[in-house]
Design a protein that fits this description.
By secondary structure, the protein is an alpha/beta fold. It folds into 2 domains: 7-266 and 472-488, Aldehyde Dehydrogenase, Chain A, domain 1 (3-Layer(aba) Sandwich); 271-461, Aldehyde Dehydrogenase, Chain A, domain 2, CATH 3.40.309.10. It is 38% helix and 21% strand. The protein has helices at residues 7-12, 54-70, 78-94, 96-107, 111-132, 168-181, 196-208, 222-231, 244-256, 281-293, 313-326, 345-360, 394-397, 413-421, 436-445; strands spanning 20-22, 25-27, 34-38, 45-50, 139-140, 147-155, 158-162, 185-189, 215-217, 237-241, 261-265, 271-274, 305-309, 364-367, 371-372, 380-381, 384-387, 404-410, 425-426, 428-432, 450-453, 468-469, 472-473, 486-494. The strands form 7 sheets. The chain has a 7-stranded mixed sheet, sandwiched between helices.
């Protein structure tokens, strides 16, 4: 695969689309307004991207509603839908190198990650839901002999999806693939920092054969495009992945408008528990480090609260610190780089601000905590490890969304589980133990939508993903995701002579 010496060279090998995609065609925002796309790798200006507002939202909603009402996609046969969805997956796969490159220069994620994980998983997601189209059956109820009851699953109609910048295509696919598979029209609102890959995918959706108006993409910021989408009276559902703060706003907008269906996957402050009976501390240390340092900590399930049994804490943290020291931020376009940049300058300053709060509140900074690669012009922060953190500290309670581990000591399993659950979040949690009884107790008591035992981030497309508490509700992935984009209808037929 091609290695690129600079962002400029990489950009020249792509064909970025910068206009909104509405009703099957690219077009400028109606105001003509644009927003700058800046590469966090080195500060290079990538493009002027359309900045949509409520007028563009209204245009897209009308197109999506008209497409839905015409039924060209909604009423297509399962085999027709499957052919289109599989063709869509094939086109994404055929253009995976360009899409991976767009994501890397737009986000600062290492090209090794976008090539090996993000794009293959996006393709897998589209194929999975294509395959599911003719595998979901309606039901016949246990009716009395003089009646026939049918429980049918119908598409909601027009779905808005507001997606995050940390996995621009994969998180989008978790929304658009099940929504399309169930016959809806969809309007995607990507994060303003990372619009380029999804706009290119919109072009591939048209090439795959989706009818005009079925697949729309509105770049823009949250107040300009996300808010009016969530408030629109003719949008039937909004699926959101992002911060808890914005998730609460989305719920409010749904209540203020038409009580539209809402699915939220919000923040996390995930605990990873290391028991003193863990029989592979090296594996646990690697999981503890990479559970936060992968994607520079910009992952909602990052195990940023590292709970370690006091008897092994110093030994264990030495192992984690060694990994952190050896993991130097590098050029995301270099295939050998494992640790790239943060998404933008604002996020870098936010992370560095949390580091200062941690030091001010008495935590011990063991590794990192500073800006890196300052001469690059990009936005890099060193892998960071704090020791002697207490669970009431800001760095233990708030989602940092950066490469910062907060180590907290405990004395027994009950204390560890109490600390782990002492959070407004409940997206993920994990435990490392060789005691099967402790593993089962933790699995039951941890209040999180995803619990991992002797591993971290173990999952695939067949398992549901979502959280408890203020990490949101509703599930992405698996067949359970179809519930967010469908309504159950009961049809009761009275029979004569039954």
């Amino acid at each position: 695969m091609t290695a690129f010496a600079s962002v400029d060279a990489a950009l020249k090998s792509t064909s970025p689309r910068t206009q909104a995609f509405i009703d099957g065609r690219f077009q400028d925002a109606l105001t003509g307004q644009t927003m700058a796309s800046i590469s966090p790798i080195d500060g290079t200006h990538l493009a002027h991207v359309a900045s949509c507002d409520e007028r563009d939202v209204d245009l897209a909603v009308r197109a999506a509603r008209q497409a839905f009402d015409k039924g060209l996609w909604r009423n297509a046969s399962p085999s027709e839908k499957q052919r289109t969805m599989f063709r869509f997956a094939e086109l994404i796969e055929a253009n995976a190198e360009e899409l991976a490159l767009l994501e890397t220069i737009d986000l600062g994620k290492p090209i090794s990650n976008t090539r090996s994980a993000d794009l293959p998983l996006t393709v897998q997601t589209v194929r999975y839901y294509a395959e599911a189209i003719n595998k979901i059956n309606d039901e016949i109820g246990p009716s009395p002999s003089d009646a026939l009851s049918m429980i049918v699953r119908e598409p909601l109609g027009v779905v808005g999806a507001v997606t995050p910048w940390n996995f621009p295509l994969l998180m989008a696919a978790w929304k658009f693939a099940p929504a399309l598979a169930t016959g809806n029209s969809i309007i995607m609102k990507p994060a303003e920092q990372t619009s380029l890959s999804l706009l290119r995918v919109a072009e591939l959706a048209a090439e795959a054969g989706f009818p005009e108006g079925v697949f729309n993409v509105l770049p823009g910021d949250g107040p300009g495009a996300g808010k009016p989408l969530a408030l629109h009276m003719d949008v039937d559902a909004v699926a959101f992945t992002g911060s808890t703060q914005v998730g609460k706003l989305i719920m409010g907008y749904a209540a203020q408008s038409n009580l539209k269906r809402v699915g939220l996957e919000c923040g996390g402050k995930s605990p990873q528990i290391i028991m003193d009976d863990c029989d592979d501390l090296d594996a646990a240390a690697s999981a503890a480090a990479w559970g936060v340092f992968y994607d520079q900590g910009q992952v909602c399930t990052a195990g940023t609260r590292l709970l370690v049994h006091r008897a092994i804490k110093d030994q264990f943290l030495d192992k984690v610190a060694t990994i952190a020291r050896e993991l130097e931020p590098g050029d995301p376009l270099d295939p050998d780089t494992e640790f790239g940049s943060l998404v933008d300058q604002g996020q870098m300053q936010t992370v560095l601000g949390y580091v200062e709060k941690g030091k001010a509140q008495g935590a011990d900074l063991i590794v990192g905590g500073a800006q890196a690669r300052t001469a690059s012009g990009g936005f890099y922060v060193e892998p960071t490890l704090f020791d002697n953190v207490t669970n009431d500290m800001t760095i233990a309670q708030e989602e940092i969304f950066g490469p910062v581990i907060s180590a907290i000591a405990f004395d027994d399993l009950d204390e560890a589980l109490t600390i782990a659950n002492d959070s407004i979040y409940g997206l993920a949690a994990g435990i490392w133990t060789s005691n099967v009884n402790n593993a089962h107790i933790a699995g039951r008591r941890l209040r999180a939508g995803n619990v991992w035992i002797n591993c971290w981030d173990g999952s695939d497309i067949t398992t549901p993903f979502g959280g408890f508490k203020q990490s949101g509700f509703g599930r992405d992935r698996s067949l359970h995701a179809l519930d967010k984009y469908t309504e159950l209808k009961t049809i009761w037929l009275k029979l004569k002579g039954g």
